[in-house]
Amino acid sequence: MSLPIGFPGKAGLPRTIRGGSVARSAGRGLSCGALFLLLMSVLAPASGAQEQKHFDPTEAPITEKSKKVAPFTSSDRLRFYYHTTFTPFALTGPVLGAAFTQWTTRNPPEWGEGFPGFGRRLASGYGRQVIANTIALGVGAIADEDPRHYPTGQHGVRRRALYAARESIVSRNASTGELMPAYSRIVGVYAAGFVSNLWYPDRFSDIHDALWRGSTALASDIVWQEFKEFWPDVRRILPHR
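Predicted structure:
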């Protein structure tokens, strides 16, 4: 899962937020709201299913070694697609991406500021995510790819962090478990970057900007993979209700 963040392309560079206290307060409110949605979307399902080891369709159900896992079936693929596209959980990336852009670059400026601008950036980010995931669904089926996150089953922060970063561009064969390029993820985010040219302003809708959006979406997936790798450790040390 990537965060469709609206980083600037050639037409604009990050700029310091300007305006009075109202604009600053609105920006902080959006950021706080985004973080709240993130925590709720991740923690809420876990609190009701702490005894279910495999409730998360985005993570491979393994304990120690990544190859000790059942084949990734067509039903698993559809559950993965639905969970990462049409559930409240799926809004986490677009909300954070829109909030980050609203707080920093506010690109494209034609979309405005405040809540209307945030809404446009959120709709754009979610649209890109739906397009990317839908294309990835088809590509993954053709390539027989398992796009889930595979925990390392290893120890050491550095080793696990490097492994998780690799997961953004590497997947596994759904039948054999062997490593393979993450074709579905790569094709999906770049295709979505080009399709989104249809609704971006003209100066943000050329080949360079499409490639930039695809690259930032792929890079943001590293953050997601790191979160998936280390979140179980954080959850274990949090107070249980």
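Summary: The chain is about 55% helix and 5% strand.
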